[in-house]
Amino acid sequence: MRILLSFIFSSILLLGLPAAGIFLSGQPVEQYMEFPPLTRYVRHAGPSWLVFAVLFVSISAFLYPFLKRFLEASPGHGSLGQDQRSFPWWGKGALFICVISWVLAWTRFSWFRPFQPYTFIPLWFSFVFLVNGLSHWRTGSSLLERAPVGFVLLFPASSIFWWYFEYLNRFVQNWYYVGIDDFSTIQYVVTASVSFSTVLPAVLSVNEFLKGFGRFENAFEDFAPLNLRTPGIVAACALLLSSSGLIAIGILPDILFPLLWTAPLIIVTAINFFLGIPTVFEPLGKGSWTPVCRLAASGLICGIFWEMWNYFSYAKWIYSIPFVSQLKIFEMPLLGYAGYLPFGLECAVAGSFVMGLQDILESRAPLMVRKCSPKA
């Protein structure tokens, strides 16, 4: 029941606040609700090396202690050993489909032209099963095998999950799609929904795969404990600031666009705290940063594959980000990859609505590895 309440309250804030801000500012709300979203109406600021330098130094300073500890940690043996098994047949099939889909996505065969806009779908479905096959090979287990019902449910949940980000992007327009001009509304909804359905399974399957590497446990399992003296005040302030930012995100898109990636995580975490639901940050109180760091790494790994395969695809997304659009890796500006770190945690939170948060924290579901109790 509390999970349902968290979902309802979070949805109201994430969907209502940006539109409310536009309405209160006197701007036309209709243009933000255009569907399919083809019109570009947000004019972004150009590149600024000063802003780039400040953000680069800030992000690097934040990540340095984590990278240093990770690189200095012993690799360990993770879950390898007597449980290691052969690579499953379905993993081999997924690898074959993934390679073929990759070739078709990056080439322009005339006979394949009608199907060119749809290559994302087989490419990412096969990637999900390939990663599960690799998990089975390394540890003898995988998300697909260990939680088959939850794994299947992640696909429709993932579509809903990513549509939230598509909605929030309407107010900042940090990305837009090309190669879809001929799509009808129904074609766009169906194709996009099926494509979006692979997001959660991909990130959470990679997270499961990374559990086979002992370096994460050796680096972050006994890290710096994060104990807040007044967690209620911190949660209330975080919720207030994020909510205020979402109200203004469409009014000041060049300044507040990072909230697209951080506000959902902050809002859901704060609401979960007040409802007495364990949060994804719960293990930090005991100095266990392993689940958080592994999820952040999972988001980044998937992000690199997303951006790489997107680069030469026919139907693709293009970024339009203020101030830091320089130094691109594929279509994504370098600093934009930092957004995939909190995104990995957001995938865990979204997965908790599917799997059941308590089971996740007790390691009976795929996202977390330590048992935690709800806050009183």
Key structural traits:
376 residues, mainly alpha, two-stranded antiparallel sheet, 15 helices, 4 strands, globular, disordered C terminus
How would you sum up this structure, described in words?
The protein is mainly α. It has one domain (2-37, 44-361). The protein has helices spanning 2-24, 49-72, 89-106, 120-139, 143-146, 148-169, 185-196, 199-210, 214-220, 231-248, 253-256, 259-274, 290-311, 340-355, 357-361, and strands at residues 175-178, 316-319, 328-329, 332-333. The chain has a two-stranded antiparallel ribbon. Strands 3-4 form a two-stranded antiparallel sheet. α12 (259-274) runs parallel beside α14. The model is unreliable at 360-376 (pLDDT under 50).
